[in-house]
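Repro case for the chain-ordering regression, as requested:
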Amino acid sequence: MAIDMSMPVLVVDDYNTMIRIIRNLLKQLGFEDVDDASDGSAALAKLREKRYGLVISDWNMEPMTGYELLKEVRQDPGLSKTPFIMVTAESKTENVIAAKKAGVNNYIVKPFNAQTLKTKIEAVFAES
Amino acid sequence: MALADASHFDRLVDFLKQKRDNVTFHDIISLAEVSAQSLQSFFQSLDAKLYRELREIAQYIETMRHEIGALQVNDLKNSRIPQAGEELGAIVQATEAATHTIMECAEAVMAADARDPAAYKALVDEKMLVIFEACSFQDITGQRIAKVVETLQHIEERVSRFANVVQAKDLDGFLTETERVRAERKEKLLLHGPQLAGDGVDQSKVDEMFA
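-- result from build under test --
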């Protein structure tokens, strides 16, 4: 499936620099409509206000982690099909397994490069 | 330790054998004196043992006081640990500022109009220099980190010495309420943080799990 580059993307991270990095990488890939949130609960609020085509989220945030956000998204009938990529420093096997079980579409371990982000986004929409 | 001098009890027995009737007040006093004398040796030895044990306790307390003083907890609490915290805060600020500068340069280069090669090259050269300058943060942050490490080593030495001298034993599973809540959250939400090289999975392993 061809990726709709005009779709809004939501980047969730409590670290402003990482949001800026991902935003720039997405811009290079052609995504122009990029919003951000600093934790899972702020992201959930935005997801319920606007239809996003992709969520790219960190794991370790407060008060709501990306893992909790993922579970909330998958449990919400209006959001459950939203493509969700975890981009995180959490690199233990149990984290990857838990995220996969919770319904994440793909998982990127920090630090990462632009090619990895591009490949994973393409893979998510290829599955769709 | 003998409970009493046996000869004193012999005197007591002799006395009791002699007197059956007409016991006087004087007899009772004499009896009390004999009993007191017989137990005197017992109390003397008891005093000596108690004294030794109390002295050992006093010496232990004195040692503990000395070691607590040597730990210099007030210096750690009021000076060294807060300073280490400030150094770490300064490191975060410096790395954030450098990252911001580098990213601004990158964004400027990416957004620049390349149709005028000379102007474009001048811009790129200018921004590259700024990036090199920004990278000097690593020198200062490296020195700050060294100071924090030194503080941690200082704390470790003091605590190790104290633990060895007082033969400290850990209370199994002791956590303050705040620590307990934090630990439960970490366990429930799998919050491990970044792993050291070799401890976590790399991207290729993750990709295999999603294949």
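Ordering looks correct now. Helices of chain A lie at 16-29, 40-47, 66-75, 93-102, 114-127.
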